Amino acid sequence: MKRIKVSNNVIRRLPRYLQKLDELNASGVDRISSGELGRQMSLTPSQIRQDFSCFGEFGQQGYGYNVSALRAEIAKILGMDRNFTAVLVGVGNIGHALIDHFSFKHYGVELVSAFDVKKDVVGTKIGGMEIYDMENLRAVVDELKPDIAVLCVPRFYANDAAKTLIEAGVRGIWNFTNVELDIPEGTTIVENIYFSDSLLALGYYLSERIDEMEAKAAKSRGV
Amino acid sequence: MKRIKVSNNVIRRLPRYLQKLDELNASGVDRISSGELGRQMSLTPSQIRQDFSCFGEFGQQGYGYNVSALRAEIAKILGMDRNFTAVLVGVGNIGHALIDHFSFKHYGVELVSAFDVKKDVVGTKIGGMEIYDMENLRAVVDELKPDIAVLCVPRFYANDAAKTLIEAGVRGIWNFTNVELDIPEGTTIVENIYFSDSLLALGYYLSERIDEMEAKAAKSRGV
Fold first, then answer.
1. Contact B203/A101, CB-based, under 8 Å?
2. Does ipTM top 0.95?
3. Closest to A209 (Cβ–Cβ): which among B78, B92, B171?
4. What is the Cα–Cα distance from A177 to A156, expressed in whole angstroms?
5. What pLDDT does A222 receive?
């Protein structure tokens, strides 16, 4: 696939389009205009056309978008057809929740193995997946050559685990540890999912809302 | 606080600044130049100055930033000094992980109560916090008036739970359900933490990297 550099903001909207198109598919909608898609997603039609124009021509003047075709195109752009495989490292609550409830398959990723250090967890099965001893991590990764590691270990162990994984050739780390990993630039793609950042952003917007309401109230009292 | 509209990209960087300043504080650094801060965060000095200029003048020409003072300013901007309170709704794996391992206090939020429907969970304590029956959600929220609800319920129940919370006056929802909540605009701030979007973005960047490497390899073979 020939590639042009696309802004991170556009990339971050693609999964939202995918989600919306899945919903439309599920409710039997087979085509949609950029206007209607925009209305449902709180985006302007021109924003939507601009986003998609980064990847080629998907819509048709006067017809709009074919929902299934557009969904397939976006899935392809996101690499969902590349049969990525993943190992999960650290089966605490978060790791457990991901194995049990997160549909890796739905997003084109096959979870092939999971690891932990706790003796009472190693050897058990979660959601049909056997949990291996962390001691075997390097050997299993060497053998299975997963594309992605889902990193759910405790903070103090985050960088050591990442180092092992990268040395074994893992090219993508999905990082749940809330540690900014110390990784040489250009070696591995790290996608951080920082719960704290999300809560703090909520705090910002909530503060803004409260200030706006108080300002409005003060104004209506003539202060 | 007087407010100007600040772009979402800037807001999303603030927690990263906070994290970095905490690290600097912990390692005894008490002042830092925008150049050095930029180097450590992979941002340009002018980007950093521009981000902070949205909120006033923090640095000093030739001196740089006072780490503690800047940290305090950013914490304030993020609403960390507002004593926000939160209830957690749905103590499955994710909810459990948040109660056990996520330091709400560190981010200025007090977790005051948690709820579930499962009879074997209700009445037990997790991390010192008693889990209440979901039946009492409305009554408890009416009484405690939390600012934030942390929504960790199963998908099918997400919108019902959100409705109850909003009717009871909750102004912010931290949404872990992966459901785009159907909420009237302007009533409640919703901060979504979509695991799927994060994994899909990783898939995009990984695909991009792989394509680049293959293109390079093909070029070096003279294809």
1. no
2. no
3. B171
4. 9
5. 79
Q: Are B15 and A102 within 8 A, CB to CB?
A: no
A23 closest CA partner among B182, B176, B161, B204: B182
Average pLDDT rounded to a whole number, residues B33-52 = 90
Strands (DSSP E) found in chain A? 31-32, 65-66, 84-89, 109-116, 125-126, 129-133, 148-151, 172-175, 189-192
- pLDDT (tens digit per residue) in A40-57: 888 999 999 889 888 877
**Are A205 and B193 an interchain contact pair (Cβ–Cβ within 8 Å)?**
no
> What pTM did the predictor assign?
0.84
* Continuous segment of H or E residues that includes residue B109: strand B109-116
B-interface mutation test, from A74, A200, A216, most B Cβ less than 10 A away: A200
Crossing angle (nearest 10°) for helices B45-53 and B34-41:
110
Closest by Cβ to A78, choosing from B42, B185, B204: B204
pLDDT of residue B3: 66
Query: In which residue are the tokens 């209440």 written?
Result: B132
pLDDT, tens digit, 9 for 90 and up, residues A94-111:
898 899 888 899 999 999
Q: Does A11 contact B204 at a Cβ distance shorter than 8 Å?
A: yes
